[in-house]
Amino acid sequence: MATFPSDRAAWRPYGDTEIVEASPQPDVPYYRDDLALVHHLGFGFHADACAPGILRLLEPVRERGGLVVELGCGSGLLTAHLVDAGFRVVATDASDAMLNLARTHAPGTFEIRRLTLPCDPIPPAHAIVGVGHALNYLDKESQVEAALIEIANALLPGGVMAIDLCDLAWGAGRVNQPPKVWRTEDWVLMTEFSVPEPNRYVRLMATFVRQEDGTWRRDDERHDNVLIETAKVPELLAIHGVEATLSAGFGDELLPAGLVAVIGRKTG
User: Max Cα separation, the chain?
Assistant: First the structure.
């Protein structure tokens, strides 16, 4: 496994190439243009793996023409599966760069719009789905709980929820995880990992994207994820009318250790 050099600032993706720093975007903490593109091009396997199970869970929703709200749609990787299967989808994300990609990747989506939890209301829906542990990007466990309650309240009677969440076990299994480098001819992603607290998982990511003039543009992002004890989630949702179970996957797929599928149904 490749590791970071001691002087990361001096690193060059492919030999002695010129590095141009991306324009600062201090008000966009997660998934700016370059990382959004890299994630779309190189990390669609999670959505592809989860899609068949989620589509089966939502079959009753499709049959009655119900509305599906997707949280953390990213670049539209799961969205495209939902739309192709005939669902009416409102795809949402907090990253404008991701939403721009989704508009291209998932044509035919009923609506694609910005939604930032826990502040923005979720529209009433017959199903609420999401992969990529979007709720773990919130700042505190209390915000994750507030977002779960918002999901429960937004579900219409008989509605289905299917999201994934990072458990405390996600961090416990990644203590001392070595750095990783992913390379293609057009982009490179370098990531360092840390678990500063049992409920906090941090990734420092440097992206290098090849430009038309042969230079490479570099951008750096820090992603802080709050981890929760997912065993408490079904009890919380039950208070708000959702019967939920935890699973290692949405269907036949097996999620990575510490990533939990939360599958529920609105009873009221």
Answer: 63
Nearest to 90 by CA among 124, 48, 118: 124
CATH fold, domain 42-166+229-266, is Rossmann fold (3.40.50)
Residue 90 corresponds to which amino acid? V
Locate CATH 3.40.50.150 in the chain. 42-166+229-266
Torsion 114-116-120-125 (CA) sign: positive
Residue with tokens 């793996």: 49
Enumerate residues 6+ apart whose C-beta is below 8 A from 239: none
Tokens for 120?
A: 């923005």
How much is the pTM? 0.93
The answer to whether the beta carbons of residues 109 and 79 sit under 8 Å apart is yes
What are the two backbone dihedrals, phi and then psi, of residue 91, each rounded to the nearest 5 degrees?
-95, 130
Question: What single letter denotes the amino acid at residue 158?
Answer: G
Q: Of 34, 13, 48, nearest to 184 (Cα)?
A: 13
CATH fold of 16-30+170-226: N-terminal domain of TfIIb (2.20.25)
The Cα–Cα gap between 231 and 225 comes to: 18
Residue 141's contacts (CB-CB under 8 Å, 6 or more residues apart) are: 199, 226, 228
pLDDT surpassing 80 at residue 28: no
Q: Is residue 158 pLDDT above 80, yes or no? A: yes
8 Å CB contact between 157 and 187:
no
* Closest C-alpha to 74, from 109, 110, 105: 105
pLDDT tops 80 at residue 219: yes
The amino acid sitting at 82 is L
